[in-house]
Amino acid sequence: MTARRRRPHLDVDHLIDDPRTHIVVCCGSGGVGKTTTAAALGLRAAERGRQVVVLTIDPARRLAQSMGLNELDNVPRKVTGVDVGAGGGLDAMMLDMKRTFDEVVEAHTTPDRARQILANPFYQALSSSFAGTQEYMAMEKLGQLRRRDQWDLVVVDTPPSRSALDFLDAPERLGSFLDGRLIRLLGGPARTGGKAYRKVFQAGFNVVTGALTKVLGGELLRDVQTFVNALDTMFGGFRERAEQTYALLQRPETSFLVVAVPEQDALREASYFVDRLSEEAMPLAGLVLNRLHVGDAGGISEEQAVAGAERLEALDGHELTASLLRLHADRLAAAAHDRRTAERFSAAHPDVPVAPVQALPTDVHDLEGLREIGRLLAG
């Protein structure tokens, strides 16, 4: 038997029907269909009786369009047109990275201190563009949604990172940065102990900040110091929530779906992610293999189609038939390529269940398209 025949099948309906499943995280490299997969899963789960919210991080805003919404923002919005006969419902939202960071600040400090932080130029830059902030805030928002009783299933479309591994690394990276020695030092002597210690600390602090002023410039350094002093009551909170996020992701109520397409780079990234999830003891449900080309089970072979096209091309009046044969041969070649690529992944990860999703002739742009993807996901 081939690896293709041996690989276990991912039962998507069993996953979303299981009342013990409360979080599904769709992850993978960029451009593999995570957003569409997350939306299709959310719609299918809602129409099978679950109360679902889909959290997307998608700059193209395709999810809003396919769900018939004028826009998505940081507030969950009801999706109309969903069949609620089974008692379910569907909301959708798009992560606003900066607004979520603002909410964290407002929730964990006093109103006066929050105003200081939100107005600080260094904070504004940090909350908008610091590497890893988007991934960290996606996890913050996931925690917020899970703590509410309104939904029993949260489907997360992870950020389009350069590497899928950034999603797991970012919370710890941002927490370490905000809780690190340099940031603490920039808080100045206000954090230090007795008078004698403060005197010694001040001398060392002046040396360090003098050097940083030459590198960063005095104005930026003052912004950083002001930000750190205002953020003093929140130190440790970022690391604590990062740890809570990891614990949430490791619990049995969470399932990870790695999404890929039958291309070498995408499946290499998927392989890395599968290994990392295993190392971190995070629950992997399986692989969604999108945009598979499927060849005809019967009919003429690729070689026969090419040979027939070559013969017809030598004759007058058979150009259309020859073109159709070429098209058929290309389709069979693409299907063979996808099959070989998928089999290499399965050979490396024989225990990972796979849900193959056939390539559609057109892009998904409405609820019916998402339903079709859901049907394909469910096999």
UniProtKB/TrEMBL annotation:
UniProt superkingdom: Bacteria
Database matches in Pfam families: ArsA_ATPase
Gene3D superfamilies, per the entry: P-loop containing nucleotide triphosphate hydrolases (3.40.50.300)
Signal peptide range: none
CDD domains: ArsA (cd02035)
Residues that span the membrane, as ranges: none
Domain ArsA/GET3 Anion-transporting ATPase-like: 22-292
A molecular-function term among this protein's GO annotations: ATP hydrolysis activity
Classification via PANTHER family: ANION TRANSPORTER ATPASE-RELATED, ARSENICAL PUMP-DRIVING ATPASE ARSENITE-TRANSLOCATING ATPASE
Protein name in UniProt: ArsA family ATPase
